[in-house]
Design goal:
four-stranded mixed sheet; globular; 11% helix; 2,3-Dihydroxybiphenyl 1,2-Dioxygenase, domain 1; mainly beta
Length: 90
Amino acid sequence: MLRTPDGQGIELDKFHTPDAVRFGPVNAPVNALGLRRVMFAVDGIDAVLARMEAYGAEIIGQMRYEQSYRLAYIRGPEGIIVGLAEQHLS
């Protein structure tokens, strides 16, 4: 269970049985119907990326949004794109 700053919760589940059944292509475009992307705010994006790479995550892109955010995107094992956003306060 993850808690957002406003106190709301987000539940992430992993089913161990029965075995997962893949439905649809792994690398579907981000505008395909269904949950294709999720983003998290992080502190220390370089350390988070290093930790994710150690677990085999594929970094598929990085960018800066003006002077406000540094963004990075990784693809999870089920093909879902996970965005990481680190805010830069000026």
